[in-house]
Amino acid sequence: MENREILSILGLARKAGKLVYGHDAVLRNFQRGKLLIISLDYSRRESSYLRRLAVRNNIPVLFLGTKSEFGRIFGSSPTGVILITDRHFANKIKKLL
Question: Is the pTM of this model over 0.85?
Fold first, then answer.
């Protein structure tokens, strides 16, 4: 992922408690979602499932970054899916793309 601004926004959203990451956490919080971000190296099967779920719930989907990049941002093991739960953070990210 090349855009440092997006990385910065993801870090701020995490600190503010406005995003969840990891497959199970995303599924538990899906109804609160404003933007779904799926890593480019996430499982094709799971990506398709989450994309269909997002379409049904009118949640925009972005494909960017890698699992290891997301893991570094959050100081955790690699993770392939992020759900932004705040419309302001979601809008900032969408504007940068």
Answer: yes
